[in-house]
Write a structure and sequence with these properties.
Blueprint lengths: L10 E4 L3 H8 L5 E4 L6 H5 L2 H8 L3 E7 L1 H5 L10 E8 H10 L6 E6 H4 L18 E7 L8 E5 L3 E9 L2 E6 L42 E5 L4 E4 L4 E6 L3 E9 L2 H6 L3 H18 L1 H14 L1
Bound molecules: 2-oxoglutaric acid (AKG).
Length: 295
């Protein structure tokens, strides 16, 4: 069991109204919101039995972790931890994840509205932003030797990350110098918003400039919400079987004016990121999506 305490560097706010939310949001730092999601039906009703009853036959996308990722966490760096993506029913996924005899570990990461239309009403969409979010549902697991993990990366969106059930440990780093996070820019396959560094086992010989002192650690409890600003690096590990919802909102031009600290970060990332995007088809697609979102 991983034991950590929420860092004092992350503010907590109870049931903010939009004005209070935006005041804190302007600081361009992560913060925790209490007292909001804990009242949602999702936080009170989403047992596996309930989910199977309503959505058991729905088709979901499941990611399977690579064997060498399981053998040694050192391997995971930026290379995808997943080797197989499978579509199956939600019931099959829960059966496999809870009862599998092999050391197979999987992670569900799928569009909420497309895959779980029957239970949308259990969620009160946050209304701090005016635009419509893209909502992702994550259902992960943890056992003695392994936890569902998302490797260190940043996203080009505002993330309202809601812990519905169970707990997650989230390690965050402020987006200081982009290249000090060692994005895999030398690889045509690599995606520029990933890091080669495993923040749980930092190899300072290979990654001497990694800003390890800046680490902020949070354990998100059921019913808590974490706001993750665009370009903030994060690494996420399941502490137990758990479900989260990410509400992803595109960045708008006016956000650069309101979240003043974001512009220098963007200008630091953009040149190497764009150079890499031009040489890598996958990265180019991500980059074009980002600009479409802003416009
Ligand atoms: O919950 C996770 O494993 C990852 C969440 C995440 O990276 C995100 O919402 O951007």
């Amino acid at each position: 069991m991983i034991k950590v305490q929420t860092s004092e560097l992350v503010s907590k706010i109870k049931s903010p109204n939009t004005k209070q939310f935006l005041n804190l949001w302007k600081e361009y730092r992560p913060f925790i919101i209490e007292g909001v999601a804990k009242n949602w039906d999702a936080c009170n009703k989403w047992t596996n039995d309930y989910l199977i009853k309503h959505c058991g036959d729905n088709i979901v996308t499941v990611f399977f972790f690579k064997q060498d990722f399981l053998e040694s966490h050192k391997n995971f760096a930026y290379e995808s931890a997943f080797e197989l993506v499978n579509d199956m029913t939600y019931k099959e996924f829960l059966d496999k994840a809870n009862n599998s005899e092999d050391r197979m570990v999987c992670y569900l990461n799928t569009g909420f509205e497309e895959c779980f239309p029957e239970i949308i009403e259990d969620v009160n969409y946050p209304e701090y932003f005016k635009s419509k979010p893209n909502v992702i549902l994550w259902h992960g697991f943890s056992n003695k030797s392994f936890s569902s993990t998302s490797t260190l990366h940043f996203d080009k969106i505002h993330n309202i990350f809601v812990q519905i059930r169970g707990k997650k440990r989230i390690v965050l780093f402020p987006p200081s110098d982009y290249l000090s996070f060692y994005p895999p820019l030398e690889s045509g396959q690599g995606i520029g918003h990933n890091s080669k560094v495993n923040p749980d086992d930092i190899n300072l010989e290979s990654f001497p400039n990694f800003p390890w002192k800046e680490k902020i650690e949070v354990v998100l409890q059921p019913g808590e919400i974490l706001y993750i600003p665009p370009f903030w690096w994060h690494h996420v590990t399941a502490i137990d079987e758990n479900i989260s919802l990410s509400f992803w909102y595109d960045i708008k031009i006016k956000d650069f004016v309101m979240q003043k600290k974001m512009l220098p970060i963007f200008l630091n990332i953009a040149p190497p990121y764009l150079r890499h995007a031009i040489s890598s088809g996958e990265s180019l697609m991500h980059t074009m999506d980002f600009f479409k979102g802003i416009i």
